[in-house]
Amino acid sequence: MPVEVMYDDIKIGDTSSISKTITESDVYTFAGLCGDNNPVHVNEEFAKNSLFKTRIAHGFLCGSLLSAIFGTQLPGINTIYLSQEMNFKAPVKFGDTITATAEVLEKDDKKKNIRFKTTLTNQDGTVVIDGFALVKKYEKK
Amino acid sequence: MPVEVMYDDIKIGDTSSISKTITESDVYTFAGLCGDNNPVHVNEEFAKNSLFKTRIAHGFLCGSLLSAIFGTQLPGINTIYLSQEMNFKAPVKFGDTITATAEVLEKDDKKKNIRFKTTLTNQDGTVVIDGFALVKKYEKK
Amino acid sequence: MPVEVMYDDIKIGDTSSISKTITESDVYTFAGLCGDNNPVHVNEEFAKNSLFKTRIAHGFLCGSLLSAIFGTQLPGINTIYLSQEMNFKAPVKFGDTITATAEVLEKDDKKKNIRFKTTLTNQDGTVVIDGFALVKKYEKK
Amino acid sequence: MPVEVMYDDIKIGDTSSISKTITESDVYTFAGLCGDNNPVHVNEEFAKNSLFKTRIAHGFLCGSLLSAIFGTQLPGINTIYLSQEMNFKAPVKFGDTITATAEVLEKDDKKKNIRFKTTLTNQDGTVVIDGFALVKKYEKK
């Protein structure tokens, strides 16, 4: 089972990260799941003449690493995802290694809600996505 | 090729929708892609004692239908996804049929940016995710 | 490695079959691969009001069992697929068990081409696809 | 929802196309779905000594782009696939970008059946598959 970090053990400034090399296989599987077959993702002939010069990953695919942080690391079990804001800042190419990081910004003790700053960078340190998340830590009394 | 709707042909109030029955297969494939193996998604024994009484889909998986709208329908080809905000309002169970809808709220003619209201509902009309998106329509001069 | 049946060992009337229960997971994965997200395949709310009353499998997915026969059983290794004709006769529902059968109809000894009658039936014996295939058995001199 | 083109709006000579770069990921996923694990598809050591000098895609996988045309573009919703004939003319290598095109050849107004010429080409314009399809446009009176 993934970890469960209790609400009271989570401090402002705590961070958690997950990294993954995003592959052609990931992008194709994701295109199939969500139906986003835009040629910039699945047509190299089109993509090589596009703004990015080659096929790129879906922003949503990269952003979903945040779901893994909240669901398996911080807080982990018994997390309820309330909201996510993503600003897509730079393209992710096949083979890029993306590191997603969530940092605790604020806690609402009454609701047990936690607000995070969320940042995804590539292997060069370029920010590819930033934004904020709100999650609730569910704890039976 | 997916369609391409030109910036000037997009009007305030235009909408585009995609529907899909979200299955166990989708959720498991998505868990594998993003690594969010929280037991509420992939452990029925855990999930039946949880708040939702059964396994539920990842919010990010459902939200990704919005990527398909922007990438293949409105505007389609030559869309650059700038930002997405998602508020997760209600759980999605395996077998729920989700309809994602994007409605044009505002246009910024100088930047060719388009702001959308984004709403996902289930087969009963319950809103499961709402929020806003910003996309740029890329058009060579 | 799959088997290799030599051209001279293949007789008129020889048959080879493969069976598979076609699942929701198969259909969803195939929809993702080929991009055929017609609602009759992936939207149960739509499908229950359609001609077939529930979601059905893609004909191409079922037909692809024939590729497995030629590629792994008869003739197996060193088969070159030249043509396939498929007539879609009846719908395949999730959970149906399909048996694909290829029967040798004719041989062209000069070209080492083999013509097959190809038939797919469901668990009730209903023919869901029929047609013909032509394959070449490649054999170095 | 995918588009729905009504029978009366479909004219002889109308065409619709879909393009995709066929990847190793596609071929392996498809091999898993249909069971065609012929070494020419999944064994590079075998394939490099074969007629084609490297692994190639399944003809059925490439041909399935036609299913996406009929199911999501022309006619789209409420299409019933009646038959497909495919002649496999040239190999498709991993990384080839395939464009599938369907062109309306004939219409049978009484049955609302539409006959298409179907052609798949690679990025060099080489025809890899050709053939014919017959689909019915289902329209409630």
Could you please describe the fold and organization of this structure?
Four copies of one chain form a homotetramer. Chain A has 141 residues and is α+β, with helices and mostly antiparallel strands. Chain A has helices at 24-34, 39-42, 44-47, 59-72; strands spanning 15-21, 79-88, 97-108, 113-121, 127-137. In chain A, strands 1-3-4-5-2 form a five-stranded antiparallel beta sheet, with helices on one face. Chain A starts with 14 loop residues before the first strand and ends with a strand. The model of chain A has no long low-confidence stretch (mean pLDDT 97). At the A-B interface, helix 1, helix 2, helix 4 and strand 2 of A face helix 1, helix 2, helix 4, helix 5 and strand 2 of B. Strand 2 of chain A pairs antiparallel with strand 2 of chain B, so a sheet runs across the interface.
The helix-and-strand class of chain A reads alpha+beta
Describe the largest sheet of chain A: 5 strands, antiparallel
CATH superfamily of chain A: Hotdog Thioesterase
Oligomeric form: homotetramer
Distance between the termini of chain A: 22 Å
Percent range for helical residues of chain A? 10-25%
Q: Total helix count of chain A?
A: 4
Arithmetic mean of pLDDT of chain A: 97
Assign the CATH architecture of chain A.
Answer: Roll
Low-confidence stretches of chain A: none
Reported by name, the CATH topology of chain A is Thiol Ester Dehydrase, Chain A
Quickly count the domains of chain A. Answer: 1
Largest interface: A-B, 47 and 48 residues
Strand coverage percent of chain A = 25-35%
What sequence of helices (H) and strands (E) makes up the elements of chain A? EHHHHEEEE
- What is the strand arrangement across the widest sheet of chain A? 1-3-4-5-2
Shape of chain A: elongated
Radius of gyration of chain A: 17 Å
Strand tally of chain A is 5
Instruction: Indicate the CATH class of chain A.
Output: Alpha Beta
